[in-house]
């Protein structure tokens, strides 16, 4: 990054380094478990959350939502692994796995492209819209 870009990034509060992939994937696991179950993976006060994050495994997805696909539970467990080396290698891998789960369990029940935003397909991908993971009822 040229020095003027770095200076501008610091001045406007942008990080000059790329996002930390394992942390991003962990965060995605937190969002998925909350989207599917309506509950966060950990609860409590800030010090309790920190302790749980480092020392306790989150509840398995299917204990909170028994009708969730087993493959989704495995993926969420991998995303929430304490050891970042056990998490998926990339967001592309996660997206592909979510698409497989969606196709296997929900098939053509995805919303039509007119129902939501579309995304640009990755190179080599034929995907024209984001995968639908789960239709979680609002509580």
Provide structural commentary.
With 139 residues, the protein is mostly helical. It has one domain (16-107, 119-139): Transferase(Phosphotransferase) domain 1 (Transferase(Phosphotransferase), domain 1), CATH 1.10.510. It has six helices and no strands. The protein has helices spanning 3-11, 21-37, 46-55, 61-64, 70-79, 91-106. α2 (21-37) runs antiparallel to α5. The longest helix is centred in the N-terminal third of the chain and has 17 residues, at 21-37.
Number of domains: 1
CATH topology, by name, is Transferase(Phosphotransferase), domain 1
Please state the CA-atom Rg, rounded to the nearest Å. Answer: 18 Å
Total beta strands = 0
Structural class: mainly alpha
The pLDDT mean sits at 75
Question: Biggest β-sheet, characterized?
Answer: none
Q: What is the C-level CATH assignment?
A: Mainly Alpha
Per CATH, the architecture is Orthogonal Bundle
Described by the principal axes of the CA atoms, the overall outline is globular
* Spatial gap, N to C terminus: 47 Å
Low confidence ranges: 1-10, 114-120, 131-139
| Fraction in helix | 40-55%
- DSSP helix count? 6
């Amino acid at each position: 990054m040229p020095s003027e870009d770095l200076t501008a990034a610091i001045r406007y509060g942008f990080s000059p380094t790329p996002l930390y992939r394992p942390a991003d994937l962990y965060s995605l696991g937190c969002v998925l478990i909350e989207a599917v179950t309506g509950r966060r993976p950990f609860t409590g006060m800030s010090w309790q959350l920190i302790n749980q994050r480092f020392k306790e495994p989150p509840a398995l997805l299917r204990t909170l939502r028994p009708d969730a696909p087993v493959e989704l539970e495995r993926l969420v467990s991998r995303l929430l692994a304490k050891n970042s080396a056990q998490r998926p290698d990339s967001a592309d891998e996660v997206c592909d796995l979510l698409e497989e789960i969606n196709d296997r369990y929900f098939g053509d029940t995805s919303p039509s492209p007119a129902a939501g935003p579309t995304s640009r397909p990755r190179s080599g991908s034929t995907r024209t819209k984001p995968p639908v993971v789960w239709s979680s009822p609002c509580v």
